[in-house]
Amino acid sequence: MTGGLIAAGLGLAAVGFGARYVLRNQALIKKGMESLPVAGGFNSYYRGGFDQKMSRSEAAKILGVTPSAKPSKIKDAHKRVMIVNHPDRGGSPYLAAKINEAKDLMESSKS
After folding, report:
1. I need a labelling partner for 11 at 20 to 30 A (CA). Which of 33, 87, 99, 109 fits?
2. Please, what is the average pLDDT of the chain?
3. Residue of 29, 98, 36, 109 lying closest to 70 (CA atoms)
4. Which fold has domain 51-110?
């Protein structure tokens, strides 16, 4: 019984000290967050939908690669994006189809 009270008190103290640290160092934390690298340039989203006929630049944006990416980069990017968006894991079948279309377009135009 007293062990639970002691653990709860220590937990509240830790939360209090953590909150005090955050409040005192907001500028430092903000500067640190801004300096973190953003993988694939996802800090700003592409505004717009899909084109009627997919272009090479649209396919590159979907996969997160450059339009002149090598086949190995295209394959790795497709795998990475598909793992997150696969319908068997709760992703959208439409997005999975678009990801596959992007990979096919990027690979076919490289050959």
Report:
1. 33
2. 83
3. 109
4. Helix Hairpins (1.10.287)
Cβ atoms of 59 and 109 within 8 Å: the answer is: no
Residue bearing tokens 């717009």: 48
Contact 71, 107 (CB under 8 A): yes
- What would the mean pLDDT of 29-50 be, rounded to a whole number? 63
> H helices within the chain, ranges in order?
2-24, 26-35, 56-63, 71-85, 93-110
- For tokens 């999975």, what's the residue? 96
pTM of the model: 0.57
Place of tokens 């279309």: 101
Q: How many CB atoms lie within 10 A of CB 73?
A: 15
